[in-house]
Amino acid sequence: MREDRTADKAPGISRRKFITGTGVVIGGLAAGAGSLFSSCSPADVTRTITLATTKPQFICPYDGKAFDSFEELTAYIALEYPGLQPVDRYVSPYDGREFAALDEFRSYLDNLFSRAGFVRLNVNGTYHEVHVKAGWSLAFVLREKLGLTGTKTGCNRGSCGSCTVLVEGLAVCSCLMLAIEAENKSIVTIEGLSGSGALHPVQQAFVDNDASQCGYCVPGFIMAAVALLDRKPAASIDDIREALSGNLCICGNTKKMVQAVLACSQEADNE
Ligand code: FES
Ligand code: FES
Question: What residues contact 197, with CB distance under 8 A and at least 6 apart?
Answer without folding.
Answer: none
